[in-house]
Amino acid sequence: MNEKAEKKSLLKNPSFQAILTSLICIALGLLIGYIVLLIINPVGAGEAIKTILLNFLSRSSHPARMKALGNTLAKTAPLLMCALSICFCYKVGLFNIGAAGQYEAGACFGLYAALAWHMPWFVCLLIAALAGAVVGAISGALKAYRNVNEVISGIMLNWILLYLTNMMLNKVKDPASPYTLKLASANKAALIPTAGLNAMFSNNKTVTLAIPLAILFAILIWVILSKTKFGYELKATGYNKEAAMYAGMKEKQNIIVTLAIGGALAGIGAAFLFLTGYQEWSTTQTSVPGMGFNGIAATFLGGLHPIGTIFASFFIQSITDGGALINKSVYPSQISDLISSIIIYLCGFVLFFKFALNNWIDRGSKKKEVSKVTGKEIKADDASKGGDK
Length: 389
Fold this sequence. Notes:
Blueprint: H1 2-12, H2 14-40, H3 45-54, H4 62-91, H5 99-115, H6 121-146, H7 150-169, H8 183-186, H9 210-227, H10 229-239, H11 241-246, H12 251-274, H13 291-301, H14 306-323, H15 335-347, H16 350-388
Helix pairs in contact: 2-3, 2-15, 2-16, 3-14, 4-9, 4-12, 4-13, 4-14, 5-6, 5-7, 5-12, 5-13, 6-7, 6-12, 9-10, 9-14, 10-12, 13-14, 13-15, 14-15
């Protein structure tokens, strides 16, 4: 009986339910992705889905595996920061779809400070955070004072910042290509230091302090939201800004501050990618970077929890990198993006999954209660019959 009671309490635990529903979303997403692979070509579908899942583990040698893992971690750090940006704002009742524009602002001003002003990496990081915060604050001010939906203003700013970034960074690009100058040759001081972490990943120089810093930011966001008065006020404003105003909270200021913090996180995310030297910005780019939108998938898959977002970001980035390793002459590399999009779509049914699980638990407990009561009635009836005799 005690074991059964413990199982029930575990199934009712919100944290366990969040993990379970996320695993259900992942399993269903992979299943649908596998079915699509079977439709395209059933011969190599099993090997393709295995490669997507294993990613770096599918490499032939240990050094190659470690280097590939380093590349995945290097791209997980900026994805995690974008996911935290969306998660933080969502906890306060705001959907920060403008994280992509804030990410662009961070890339724009962080790289410009590195290549045009020759600033060190930590100054470039602060400038990137400030740029993202300003863009986020614009959406916040429009929401607070003119009641402009943050989704609309965020989408508009995504495109404005894309072309602004192209124009700004066109001044510091390589004359022979559309890409910005390489930091390794233009300004080594702007590269985020590896602090010896690269030695663990086959001397992969893109493995830097950005990775542990991103994890520390996730822990910091969790502490702010869960353990501080400031976080409580922000969440209270998100639940009901009229009630927050009545309670004496500065609801307009809280909205602006929330989106500014979200913008700063996304801006830092861009710095965590471009200041590692992993890649350069293309000044002919015509589409908004997917990093901000992939952050939505990582946020919801992580159960809207900053700590869960760490693992979700790594998983999303890992299957994305795994998709690039499959046989492209047979299968499109975008299959991993399809799986990610299905997973995020299924994450919209998380509340339904939890509702169904709780209903199933309640029905089971009610049946047991009814059977107990019925059993007692039968015993009482037998006892009364025995007394009559």
